[in-house]
Amino acid sequence: MQQINRPRRLRSTASIRDMVAETSLEGVILSIQFLFAKARNQTQPIATMPGQLRLSLDELIKRIPGWQSCGLTSFALFPKIPDSLKNSRASECLNPNRFLPQTIQRLKDKFPDITLITDVALDPYSSDGHDGIVSKGEILNDETVEILAQMAVVQAQAGADFVAPSDMMDGRVRAIRKALDSASLQKTGILAYSAKYASAFYGPFRDALESAPRHGDKKTYQMDPRNSREALREVKLDLHEGADMVMVKPALSYLDVIAKVKQISTVPVAAYNVSGEYSMVKAAASLGMIDETKVMVEILTSIRRAGADVILTYHAPEMAGWLRSSGS
Ligand code: PBG
User: φ, ψ for residue 301 (rounded to 5)?
Assistant: First the structure.
């Protein structure tokens, strides 16, 4: 049969497929790690996130060289704060002598080449489990932003390379940039969670940190999943306010948003492959319903193809191992 166009020619061998591949995951995967405060020699599984552990700092230090050798050099840290240190002002987040700042310092002393990204939001420290200060059921914006800016300075002074506001308060990127610059922390970058949706996919993460809202939901600050034009507005504001990178979160149900953001962003676009997306893969695999590795690679490839320049994922160690072994 005479046929001029045969797209299958470019798919006919592995070598040709590799030659024409448009997307690669090499070097774009960032790792996420949950940390225990204070404990030593401790690892604790997270029931709703099979394969993920809460680690004490010494356990994290033991694992980093192995990850570095697979090419994982960037880590987003989430501390699990004991209930006894939580209060309605989340004041523990500003304590420079405490767990997270000391952890950052220790890690940067031991591994000067790694990139550390720390979360700026009140929920792990708040007895209300909200990302901002709560007053009469309302999440206060400007009062929260003031605290977030100080929190970012504490983390940056300890050595964080990027502070990552995940709170979705209005105007926080500008306030954080100003506070960092006033404290001579010009080198610290801001990875802004710009289009962060009020998502049910965060459930397992909230188990991991025991940080679920004690009342209400996050819909007055996180975005409505029905919207994408609004994501562009958020991104433009964050760019204007000085974000060094912008992020879309979650990733998998929001590939369209990633693609749209990529079109307008003048800085790298990050995507956060969140806890619920990870746990669904693990659960389906444990029931023998899917091939876990293939599904992981396909999901992360799709996020990259949609336009993500970097991907934060709990699959990072497995993915980095796969990239290494497949030699791609
Ligand atoms: C909170 C925060 C959340 C996640 C990262 N930072 C949860 C939330 O907004 O309730 C979720 C990450 C995940 O599900 O993997 N500031």
Answer: -65, -40
Q: Where are the domains of the chain?
A: 7-326
311 by Cβ neighbours in 10 Å (0-12 / 13-18 / 19+) ranks as buried
Distance 312 CA to ligand 1 centre (A): 12
The CA 132 to ligand 1 mean position distance, Å, reads 13
User: Per residue in 225-278, pLDDT tens?
Assistant: 999 999 999 999 999 999 999 999 999 999 999 999 999 999 999 999 999 999
Beta strands in the chain (DSSP E): 29-36, 43-45, 53-55, 74-80, 115-120, 133-135, 138-140, 162-165, 189-196, 245-249, 269-273, 310-313
CB 165 within 8 A of CB 121: yes
Half-sphere exposure of 80 (CA within 13 A, CB side): 21
Q: What kind of architecture, by CATH, is found in domain 7-326?
A: Alpha-Beta Barrel (3.20)
At 250, list the tokens: 């979650």
Q: Is the pTM of this model over 0.70?
A: yes
Closest C-alpha residue for ligand 1 atom 8: 202
Nearest to 157 by CA among 196, 101, 97: 101
Q: What distance in Å separates the CA atoms of residue 187 and residue 238, rounded to the nearest whole number?
A: 18
Compute the distance from residue 134 Cα to the ligand 1 centre, in Å: 18
- State the CB neighbour count (10 A cutoff) for residue 31: 24
3-class DSSP assignment, residue 133: strand
Known active-site residue 249: yes
Please tell me the distance from the alpha carbon of residue 181 to that of residue 87, in angstroms, as a whole number: 29
Residue range 160-182: mean pLDDT, rounded:
98
Nearest CA to ligand 1 atom 3: 202
Is the pLDDT assigned to residue 38 strictly greater than 80? no
